[in-house]
Amino acid sequence: MTMEGPMLCKLMETSYHAARDLLLEAAREMDEAGSAARQGNPTLARGIALGAEVDLLKAVDLLKTVGALQRLG
């Protein structure tokens, strides 16, 4: 099964935007983790940072997907 050009482009675009959104969310979460740490709440800071790490890993997977889709095109 081959993908048509417009469908492939839309899939790449959607994956790219989702990765971008996850990266922005991870940055916000790391800012929140820093604030929690400065306020003396290391447990909360670690929990928030863990969520940011998960978002970063998801973003990396999506960017790998975009790369794979580009090779298909």
What topology emerges from the helices and strands here?
Elements: H1 5-38, H2 42-72
Helix pairs in contact: 1-2
Helix content estimate: over 70%
| Count of individual helical segments | 2
| Overall body shape | rod-shaped
Annotation, overall tally of beta strands: 0
Largest β sheet strand count, sense and barrel closure: none
Structural class: mainly alpha
- Fraction in beta strands: under 5%
Order of helices and strands: HH
Mean pLDDT rating: 93
Query: How large is the radius of gyration?
Result: 16 Å
Task: Provide the low-confidence segments as ranges.
Answer: none
Beginning-to-end CA distance, first to last residue = 13 Å
Structure description:
The protein is mainly alpha-helical and 73 residues long. It contains two helices and no strands. Helix 1 (5-38) packs antiparallel against helix 2. The chain is rod-shaped and about 55 Å long. The protein starts with a helix and ends with a helix. The model has no long low-confidence stretch (mean pLDDT 93).
Short description:
The protein is mainly α.
Which tags fit this structure?
about 90% helix; single chain; mainly alpha
